[in-house]
Amino acid sequence: MANRRRKKRKGRKSNVIQFNNVIRINYAVVLFVVIFIYVAISAFISMSKETISIYEVRESDINNNSIAVGVALRKESVIRTHKSGYVCYFAREGEKVGSGYGVCAIDETGDIINSISISGENSKELSDEDYASIRNLISQYKTQYKNEEFFEVYNFKSNIEDKVFEIGSDILNDTIENETSTVKATLEEISTSDSGIIIYSTDGYENTTVSTINDKSFDKSDYEKISLKTGDILSSDSPVFKIVTDENWSVVCQIDDSTKDRIKDLEYITFTLNGSDEMYVSNYTIEKRENKNYLIMNLNKYMIEFINDRFLNVEIILDRFEGLKVPKTSIAVKEVYTVDKKFIIDANGSYSLKVQSRDESGNIQTVNRDIKVYKVVDDVYYVDPEDLEETDTLVSTDDKDTIGVSLVQTGNIEGVYIVNQGVADFNMINILKDGEEFVIVEKEKGLREFDKIVMNADKVTENQIVY
Question: In 3D, which of 138, 184, 144 has the Cα closest to residue 164?
Answer without folding.
Answer: 138
